[in-house]
Amino acid sequence: MILAIANQKGGVGKTTTAINLAAALAQKGFSTLLVDLDPQGNATLSYLDPEQLNLSVYEALVEENRTLKDAVHKTNIKMLDLVPARISLAKFESKLLGDIDSHFRLKDRLKPLTKDYQYVIMDTPPTLGLLTVNALVTASHLLVPIQSSYFALEGTDDLLETVEKIKARPNPTLEFLGVVITLHDKRTILGRDIRNHIKEVFGNKVFRTIISRSVRLEESPAYKESIFSFAPHSTGALEYYKLSEEVIGRV
Question: Would you call 174 helix, strand, or coil by DSSP?
């Protein structure tokens, strides 16, 4: 399974979902690769010091003498590897502008690695640019985090329209795995109303597991840990564990 986690809105919990879902799958014994496609590199910062990296996803994608395997790094979690990102990835679109294979670069470079991993999780930037398109062309499935907020569904039409265009030609087998509600505050009436609205729009594509707003989830990346080692008994750990089980069950 190659899972793209995407939403062009920022601050919806994409990276938090990517790092903790990947960690949960690895802890369940699945060989898992986390690919950081966001130039901000927050998924990378959650596990590695980018200053100590001599090769990132950018070089692996744009340099002809490199492979994605060259950029794979071990993490402190058994069964979880990471392809890191640095700010240089922001040059990806301009570097490949006009290249005939620009939409397929990630798919072509990732293909030799897929036999080594049962799950590949891709964290994408908060845009619908070339990096996100590469992720959607490469993915077998798409997961969309939607923040439990007043503007929750803003921009999702654009994302789903892009998905339909991807399915129409470059990746007809792409499946919409579902929507996960994040940063949810179940104590508020607004939170409950937004949850119900998202369920009205997406129906059974909404995961049963809802990710609550959590200080522990925000703190864990600063200590280069997933929620499962940083706060194993927290609500966040329980929710991401349940989400991983739902993901496995939907494939």
Answer: coil
Q: Residue 44: which H helix or E strand, with range?
A: helix 42-45
Tokens of 166: 């991807």
pTM for this predicted structure: 0.95
Single-letter amino acid code for the residue at 69: K
Contact yes or no for 96/62 (Cβ under 8 A): yes
Q: Which residues pair with 32 in a beta bridge?
A: 80, 119
Q: Dmax of the chain from CA atoms?
A: 55
Sheet hosting strand 119-123, strand order edge to edge: 73-74, 80-83, 32-36, 119-123, 2-5, 141-147, 175-182
Cα 147 to Cα 183: distance, rounded to the nearest angstrom = 6
Taking only the tens place, the pLDDT of each residue in 136-190 is 999 999 999 999 887 877 878 888 899 999 999 899 999 999 999 999 888 788 8
What is the rounded distance in angstroms from the CA atom of residue 196 to the CA atom of residue 11? 21
Architecture of domain 2-250: 3-Layer(aba) Sandwich (3.40)
Contacts of 63 (CB under 8 A, 6+ apart): none
Q: Give alpha helix (H) positions in 99-234.
A: 105-110, 130-138, 156-168, 189-202, 215-219, 227-230
Q: State how far the Cα of 21 lies from the Cα of 118, in Å rounded to an integer.
A: 13
Report how far residue 1's alpha carbon sits from residue 135's, in angstroms, rounded to the nearest whole number: 13
